[in-house]
């Protein structure tokens, strides 16, 4: 099994014990290796103190299991706004927020994705529903199937 897979197996129960879910584990070779553990919560943001606690606990486990051969920097973090939504729990948490959806043109796969901006109304197994503002009116768009969605990003409102 891969190093990333082994670290996921160690991280999953630790992350869940703090009420979070694991989104991603990435190893970045850059001078000293970096191991990025990306976590999120179903209803609230990610607490920095919890990241620190998870990091300390996970570092001990990784060392005991000799997960990485070389020295590394362990980073436990939230997904941040620059990372697209990837887990259904993130969509539920962000219902009612402004999002940007990049939609693929299935007839021309080489074309750039089309961006649609709106408010996340609903997430289902089949796709995503948005409400868009047109002038002074709002309009609910038909379901956008997951098969044509490249990425969904939360867009901050200031």
Give me the secondary-structure topology.
Elements: H1 3-17, E1 21-30, E2 32-40, H2 48-64, E3 72-77, H3 88-93, E4 98-103, E5 114-123, E6 127-134, E7 137-140, E8 144-145, E9 149-154
Please count the beta strands (DSSP E, at least 2 residues each).
Answer: 9
Q: Helix and strand succession? A: HEEHEHEEEEEE
Distance between the termini: 44 Å
Question: Count of helices?
Answer: 3
**Beta-strand content bin:** 35-45%
Q: Supply the helix-strand structural class.
A: alpha+beta
Q: Which descriptor suits the 3D outline? A: elongated
Low-confidence stretches: none
Q: Average pLDDT value? A: 92
How large is the radius of gyration?
A: 19 Å
Helical proportion?
10-25%
Describe the fold and architecture.
- This protein is α+β, with helices and mostly antiparallel strands.
- Helix content is 24%, strand content 39%.
- It is built from three helices and nine strands.
- It has helices spanning 3-17, 48-64, 88-93; strands at 21-30, 32-40, 72-77, 98-103, 114-123, 127-134, 137-140, 144-145, 149-154.
- The strands form two sheets. Strands 4, 5, 6, 7, 8 and 9 form a six-stranded antiparallel sheet that branches.
- A hairpin with a 3-residue loop joins strand 5 and strand 6.
- The chain is elongated.
- It starts with a helix and ends with a strand.
- The model has no long low-confidence stretch (mean pLDDT 92).
């Amino acid at each position: 099994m891969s190093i990333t897979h082994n670290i996921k197996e160690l991280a999953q129960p630790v992350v869940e014990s703090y009420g979070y879910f694991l989104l991603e584990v990435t190893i970045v070779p850059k001078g000293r290796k970096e191991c990025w553990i990306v976590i999120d919560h179903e209803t609230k943001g990610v607490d920095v103190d919890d990241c620190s606690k998870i990091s300390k606990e996970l570092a001990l486990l990784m060392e005991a299991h000799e997960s990485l051969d070389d020295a590394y920097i362990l980073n436990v973090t939230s997904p941040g706004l620059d990372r697209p939504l990837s887990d259904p729990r993130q969509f539920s948490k962000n219902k009612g927020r402004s999002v940007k959806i990049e939609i693929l043109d299935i007839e021309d796969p080489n074309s750039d994705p089309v961006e649609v901006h709106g408010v996340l109304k609903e997430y289902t197994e089949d796709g995503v529903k948005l409400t868009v503002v047109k002038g002074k009116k709002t309009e609910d768009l038909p379901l956008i199937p997951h098969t044509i969605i490249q990425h969904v990003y939360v867009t901050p409102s200031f």
